[in-house]
Design brief:
Blueprint: H1 3-23, E1 46-48, E2 50-55, E3 63-64, H2 83-88, E4 98-100, E5 105-114, H3 117-128, E6 132-137, E7 140-141, E8 143-150, E9 153-160, E10 162-163, E11 165-167, E12 173-175, E13 178-187, E14 194-204, E15 238-239, E16 245-256, H4 274-312, H5 316-321, H6 339-365, H7 375-386, H8 388-401, H9 407-435, H10 444-471, H11 497-524, H12 532-559, H13 566-574, H14 576-591, H15 597-635
Parallel strand pairs: 13-16
Antiparallel strand pairs: 1-4, 2-3, 2-6, 5-16, 6-7, 6-10, 8-9, 11-12, 12-15, 13-14
Length: 640
């Protein structure tokens, strides 16, 4: 082997190793998120806690923190939020919670409030709907400490936020009006500077009492550090009711930690069930292996033999005696029904595939960590808009291949088809969410930003891509199409369109359904999802599975002398979206506790949009794979 050959092989090996290292999921000890710099604090530095939204897995309707009568600062200031944060319903604001770095301070009083009848109803409603309070300190969300025990030992994890209150067995609601914050910090022994590496809390409900109320310096009987009286679970809780006096207090405790700043998110992102993800990968790999063997048998044995025999036939009589896919060469490229919509669906699918792949690439590299709040949502929206060019290009290219002429109308359909569905469903849901006065409703300013991204950037890019795609020379068909369509022989029941399509959709869904459970859990049960390495592998397996199952089903179809493969190839792999939506119904029934009709509308509205997008994406993979397959096999046959 030459020296250059050895260097080239070493370079290829290094690139493959780097790709595998990036894709294979592993514990993210010490990852450093690009673009986020650590904040150093000196002793006694004043640090403020920011409040975010109130969230509930029961209603799925987030609310602003101050929608409840908590203690407010004189002037409430809204923090600047990115597009993704606004779409998620985040509303980050300042608060009266303050702390001095590395200085323990207990029984700090915020304010005293008297509950009105309206306040009491609101408190009880939020508590019964299991709302949790979200707060932020140094870009870390607050969490309640929980411990899990498995074969790896006892490990600490965080439960995001803390409950607004609780309901006793007799139906009485109580408010968590005392919060004990524990701030973990990592100290540099040389500079004595500290970095915050953990933000924990423990909520309490306590009916505070006092001798005399002094607003400037209140002294409580139920929490007095001078008398060493601290809040505990043994004290009477704070009930909800008209005329009840409620005093909000908090403690701040500091603990030095060995956790370094770069690893502080590890506890939040603890994945206790990674074995299930590996099982998902192995399950998907077995499906791919099975399909790959079937595809290889078809391609290498059956097709090779068919093409060899067909090319050796010398007379027309011998040709007529043949049966199978070879006989429909004059009809296999016949323009399908509704070819304009097929080209639009395929173009939109390519746009979604490009958006997904690029998003996954940046997520695997760590740019879209939960530390970058709203980053994932923002990236997906912006990449979808930018990839509109590919939508226009592919849809126009296919449209011209089908002998279409009105490319401008085709570009209009491509620009408005999927975003239009999203807009209609989203607008209806937004009206209902706005009617509930939830922070999850899209503000008018953000609405106009989205309209600008759609009409100002996405639509022009789609038309630009369509113009270039339509100008390109169309693909030359490997065989001529007959003027008179060939009669399709009667098909067996198992080759019926509906049966074949539903059977074809099972395997792509089987490759992703385990990971789908975790994705739905992260969306609807508001848990962190940061296993993008697993997700990238599952995505690759999904693409391979869709391509292979469609090619196999398409081969069986043309062997039955049925040349109507265009739409069926799209629907075969796209049918997995039907199973995805059905799984969403099962998940809704078994995993969610829903008490509001609006919540049901939100769930099924967004599941419809997600399933429709998944249908377009998987259908496009199957269609393009089948197009390449059909062109390859008929290009290998000699036709007089």
């Amino acid at each position: 082997m030459t020296h250059h050959g050895m260097r080239r092989r070493a370079l290829v090996a290094a690139l493959v190793a780097a790709l595998v290292a990036a894709l294979v999921p592993r514990r993210a000890h010490g990852f450093y998120l690009p673009g986020v710099a650590p904040q150093d604090y000196e002793r006694d530095d004043l640090v403020y806690i920011k409040v975010n939204k109130l969230t509930s897995t029961v209603t799925q309707l987030p609310y602003e923190y101050y929608s409840l009568p908590y203690c407010k600062p004189d002037k409430v200031k809204h923090a600047a939020e990115n597009l993704g944060e606004v779409l998620r319903g985040d509303r980050i604001e300042n608060s009266l919670y303050s702390l001095e770095m590395r200085f323990d301070d207990q029984c700090k009083v915020q304010c005293k409030e008297i509950m009105t009848e309206e306040d009491a109803k609101l408190w009880k409603s939020r508590i019964e709907d299991e709302y949790r309070v979200m707060m932020i300190l140094d870009n870390l969300p607050v969490g309640i400490t929980r411990y899990i025990e498995d074969e790896k030992g006892v490990r600490k994890k965080y439960e995001r936020g803390f409950p607004v209150g609780f309901v006793s067995e007799n139906g009485q609601a109580y408010v968590n009006n005392h919060i004990r914050f524990t701030i973990l910090y990592h100290k540099d022994p040389e500079t004595d500077l500290s970095r915050i590496v953990g933000f924990e809390c423990e909520p309490f409900s306590v009916k505070h009492t006092y001798r005399t109320w002094n607003p400037d310096k209140p002294l409580l009987q139920t929490c007095d550090p001078r008398e060493k009286i601290y809040v505990s679970d043994s004290q009477p809780p704070q009930p909800v009711g008209k005329g009840e006096e409620i005093i909000f207090t908090y403690d701040t405790l500091f603990k030095e930690s060995e956790i370094r700043w770069a690893s502080r998110w590890d506890t939040y992102l603890l994945m206790a069930d990674d074995e299930i993800h590996w099982f998902s990968i192995i399950n998907s790999m077995m499906i791919v292996l099975f399909l790959s063997v079937m595809t290889a048998l078809i391609m290498l044995r059956t097709l090779h033999r068919d093409i060899t025999v067909y090319n050796q036939l010398e007379t027309a009589e011998e040709t007529q005696e043949e049966s199978g896919w070879k006989l429909i060469h004059g009809d296999v490229f016949r323009v399908p029904f509704a070819y304009d919509w097929l080209s639009v669906f395929a173009g939109t699918g390519v746009q979604l595939i490009c958006m997904t792949m690029v998003t996954m690439f940046f997520a695997v590299l760590g740019f879209l960590s939960p530390a970058n709040r709203g980053g994932l949502m923002t990236a997906m929206v912006m990449l979808y808009v930018i990839m509109s060019f590919t939508n226009g290009y592919v849809s126009a290219f296919l449209f011209r291949m089908f002998k279409g002429q009105a490319w401008k109308m085709n570009a209009m359909k491509a620009a408005f088809m999927y975003p239009g569905v999203f807009f209609c469903v989203g607008s209806v849901l937004n009206v209902f969410i706005w009617g509930q006065k939830s922070s999850g409703a899209i503000p008018f300013g953000t609405f106009f930003v989205l309209m600008f991204l759609w009409f100002g950037i996405s639509v022009p890019l789609t038309f630009m891509g369509s113009y270039m795609g339509f100008k390109r020379e169309p693909l030359e068909e490997p065989v001529r199409t007959n003027k008179i369509p060939r009669q399709i022989p009667p098909q067996p029941w198992y080759m019926n369109d509906i049966v074949a399509i539903l059977v074809g959709g099972i395997l792509p869904f089987g490759a992703v359904f385990i990971e789908l459970f975790f994705i739905l859990t992260s969306i609807w049960l508001q848990q962190f999802y940061y296993i993008f390495g697993f997700l990238a592998l599952v995505m690759i397996i999904l693409v391979i599975t869709c391509a292979e199952i469609t090619i196999v089903m398409c081969y069986f179809q043309i062997c039955s002398e049925d040349y109507r493969w265009w739409w069926r190839s799209f629907l075969t792999s796209g049918a997995s979206a039907f199973y995805m939506f059905a799984y969403g119904v099962v998940y809704y029934k078994t995993r969610l506790v829903v008490t509001h009709k609006v919540t049901t509308m939100i769930y099924f509205g967004y599941m419809t949009i997600l399933s429709f997008g998944y249908f377009i994406l998987t259908g496009t993979v199957g269609f393009l794979s089948c197009l390449a397959f059909i062109r390859a096999i008929y290009g290998s046959v000699k036709i007089d």
